[in-house]
Amino acid sequence: MAPVRSTATQRRADAVAVAMRVIADDGLTTAAMQRVADAAGVSQPYVFRLFGSKRGLLLACLDEVEERVRTTFRAAAAQRPDDPRTAMGAAFRELLSRGVTGGLWLQASAIARHDDVVAARCRGVISVLLGETERLTGADADDLARFLADGALVVLLQAIGVDLSGGSRAAVGTLVPGRTAP
After folding, report:
1. What residues does the HTH tetR-type domain cover (predicted)?
2. In 42-177, alpha helices (H)
3. Fewer Cβ in 10 A, N or C end of the chain?
């Protein structure tokens, strides 16, 4: 029996899954592209054929971040219709605890400072997620701003290794000189 070959769509999805981890850890470098190719079992030129460029691969990863967070928000809100915002925040912290989503977001944000296309895609992800949050929770503009700020805080605290098990407020308290964890 002949071996079954992956389709370009499957190879693309595999490459994105690998790239999210690699970019989160190492940034968007040529060496990272080679690691993605090696882990996906394809050549580096094939990765470029799939995505067109390093930027194209990063944009595909941002699409996946958007989908993962949307899926996380929807599932959390469905489980706690009485308090969807709290459930969504907890689920977001859990998603970030794996290290990939937050790490990739920080790398993309750094690249966005000098790349208008990546910056526009990052704004698009935030816009979609805020719209989803508004739809799921009925939040007003002030609540959405707080939710976004809390999410950004969680990304930052997770990236620098602060324990978030007690929530972001408790984590911030541990960083204030003279305070101890509650």
Report:
1. 9-69
2. 44-51, 54-79, 84-96, 100-112, 116-137, 141-159, 168-175
3. N
pLDDT, position 180: 65
∠ Cα 151 154 159 (to 5°): 130
Q: Rounded to whole angstroms, how far apart are CA atoms 159 and 143?
A: 24
CA distances from 44 to 8, 22, 33 (A): 14, 14, 7
DSSP 28: S
First to last CA, the chain: 62
Q: What is the pTM of this model?
A: 0.88
When computed from its CA atoms, the radius of gyration of the chain, rounded to whole angstroms, is 18
Q: 15-52 burial string, b = 16+ CB within 10 Å, else e? A: bbbbbbbbbbeeebeeebbebbbeebebeeeebeebbe
Element of type H or E holding 16: helix 8-26
